[in-house]
Design a protein that fits this description.
The protein has 566 residues and is α/β, with parallel strands linked by helices. Helices cover 55% and strands 17% of the residues. The strands form three sheets. Strands 2-1-4-5-6-7 form a six-stranded antiparallel sheet, covered by helices on one side. Strands 8-12-13-3-14-15 form a six-stranded mixed sheet. Strands 9-10-11 form a three-stranded antiparallel sheet, with helices on one face. α6 packs antiparallel against α10 (299-315). The longest helix has 67 residues, at 320-386. The chain is elongated and about 155 Å long.
């Protein structure tokens, strides 16, 4: 419920705090006193119109603040998701500031939020009916929700929603596979070319290029290397004064001195090791020299291979390892093209089954809805007649969104069904049918809404309902009927009504008088709760004007007594 509405420097209001009751609240006062301005402030805090024109003359800023308490856990969760702020104990304070500089701000529980978010929260919290068209119930989607709630179609609605999600997922899978297939078909030749080129290169290892570069370096210095290793091989083995022969001679001489000195024995051992090492070096030098002679024509072949490998690295990956991975991946994609046909066929079968399931779920849901529509039509028409619209007609029109001829048609469906509905009204014979949102008369719309709210009171979860212009073109007798309806609705919702009829105001649990006065040459609007004798006097004034005759006071007292008996 809306616990408190605070307004500062807003239009004619300098400062007012309105503490509202949980049931029916009536705003009364003379025409032009500021009742509609108070509703403008309420709409402003709900994300409605805001401009510098609303700031009171002489002030630089204006503030509107609303304090709500919410008892419904589902509604609390919805608001927390919308606002992005926690609601401890279900309490929420919305605040909106206007500045002459044009800088407007909005807050929820002290945290800044966009005005669009404020508007979303307002749509959940408050439903305003009347001259400032802030009406959720004229929206077809909301009407469908109300109809399902009235008909108790929650189970069928949930089954449909699950089937709808299933079909959307199936269609998305078909589209994904088709897109993958089409993409691969377009790339098929390109992929095949890449695979052929990589396979033709016959990549041996990840380090093949490094090995070739090393070989190329040796091939480029072929003659120098051959000269060095040939000389080494010759000096080790074949020269008259070869290193091997010299070492052997020294070793013989040291053998003759064996046991003479430990140092001499160690030198002999070192010479023997040197002889072995030198012999190994000689053999390797000989082998390398022979190899170099055989590969002296390899430079061109090595350069060609290096060019091929570097080209692959430029085209496919920075390294040969990356090129080999590219080959694996591209071959896998080409191989997958053959399996996509099977996958697509399976996905299409799943989508067809999901379409069938959705049609069956929608059929059950539609049957429930049409049955509920017939019952709701009769009840609403009865309420309209009781509210003075004796020849008004009400009906619910259904429009099919899609026949769902194919699974892909799910794009035209709604998460709530394959059809939408419109609440249609013919206020007077011969005027023609029109959706509620297109009815020109604010009073007729307000009464139609009241009739709907009366019937749908248990189904509508909006905590606060506001009615303006609901008493347009009706007299006292009908006003009493409207008052009783509002009082009945207030058992399930907090209701705020702006009225000039005492027959309506008398049914309120709390009544507020809005009036203007002059103060220091300035017009100021004020709101005060009236109770006891003050309320009796206010009702009497609404009956007879400022002349509070005894009969008017007595009649006002009877009205209040009748309301207390409810």
């Amino acid at each position: 419920m809306l616990v408190r509405l605070t307004v500062e420097n807003f239009a004619l209001f300098e400062r007012c705090d309105v503490e509202l009751a949980a049931g029916l609240n009536a705003l009364t006062g003379e025409t032009g006193a500021g009742k509609s301005l108070l509703l403008d402030a309420l709409e402003c805090i709900l994300g409605g119109r805001a401009s510098t024109d609303l700031i009171r003359q002489g002030a630089d800023t204006s503030l509107v603040e609303a304090f709500f308490t919410i008892g419904d856990s589902a509604l609390i969760s919805t608001l927390e998701a919308v606002l992005g702020v926690p609601l401890p104990d279900g309490e929420i304070i919305l605040r909106r500031r206007l500045s002459r500089s044009g800088r407007f701000s909005a807050e929820a529980n002290g945290r800044a939020i966009p005005v669009s978010t404020l508007r979303q929260a307002g749509d959940v919290l408050v439903d305003i009916h009347g001259q400032n068209e802030h009406q959720r119930l004229v929206q077809p989607a909301v009407q469908l929700d109300m109809l399902d709630a009235f008909g108790g179609s929650g189970k069928e609605r949930s089954s449909y929603a699950a089937a709808y999600d299933g079909l959307r997922d199936s269609v998305a899978e078909v589209s994904r596979i088709e897109a993958e297939r089409d993409s691969l078909e377009k790339e098929k030749d390109f992929l095949a070319h890449r695979v052929r080129e990589l396979e033709a290169a016959a990549l041996k290892s990840d380090d093949e290029l490094d090995a070739l570069l090393s070989r190329r370096q040796m091939a480029a210095n072929h003659q120098q290397i051959v000269d060095v290793v040939t000389e080494l091989h010759r000096r080790v083995y074949y020269d008259d004064d070869s290193m091997t022969a010299a070492i052997e001679r020294l070793a013989v001489k040291l053998s003759r001195l064996e046991g003479v000195s430990k140092d001499l024995d160690r030198w002999k051992a070192l010479l023997e090791e040197a002889s072995v090492t030198l012999a190994e070096a000689g053999r390797e030098a000989g082998a390398l020299a022979a190899s170099m002679e055989r590969s002296q024509n390899d430079l061109e072949r090595i350069d060609d291979r290096i060019a091929v490998l570097k080209s692959l690295c430029r085209k496919y990956a920075p390294t040969l390892g990356g090129c080999r991975e590219t080959l694996r991946r591209e071959k896998e994609r080409l191989d997958g093209l053959g399996s996509l046909g099977v996958r697509l066929e399976d996905a299409a079968k799943a989508a067809a089954a999901a379409r069938k399931a959705l049609l069956e779920a929608d059929s059950r849901l539609s049957k429930e809805r049409h049955a509920a529509a017939g019952k709701l039509t009769k009840k609403v028409e009865a309420e309209l007649h009781a509210l003075g619209m004796r020849e008004a007609r009400f009906r619910i029109d259904f429009t099919v969104l899609t026949e769902l001829s194919s699974p892909q048609d799910v794009k035209d469906a709604s998460p709530a069904g394959l059809e939408i509905c419109d609440f249609m009204l013919m206020p007077n014979p011969g005027e023609g049918w029109a959706p509620l949102g297109k009815i020109a008369s604010g009073g007729e719309v307000a009464r139609a809404m009241l009739a709907l709210k009366t019937v749908l009171a248990g189904a509508d979860k909006t905590p606060v309902l506001v009615f303006d212009e609901i008493d347009a073109d009706i007299g006292g007798r009908l006003g009493e009927a409207v008052g009783r309806k509002l009082r009945a609705i207030s058992s399930a919702h907090q209701v705020i009504v702006v009225t000039h009829l005492p027959q309506i105001a008398a049914f309120a649990q709390r009544q507020f008088r809005v009036e203007k006065s002059s103060r220091a040459g300035r017009t100021v609007a004020a709101v005060e709760a009236v109770a006891g004798k003050e309320r009796l006097a206010e009702l009497a004034e609404m009956l007879r004007g400022r002349e509070k005759a005894k009969e008017a006071l007595e009649q006002a007292e009877k009205m209040l007594a009748a309301a207390r008996d409810l």
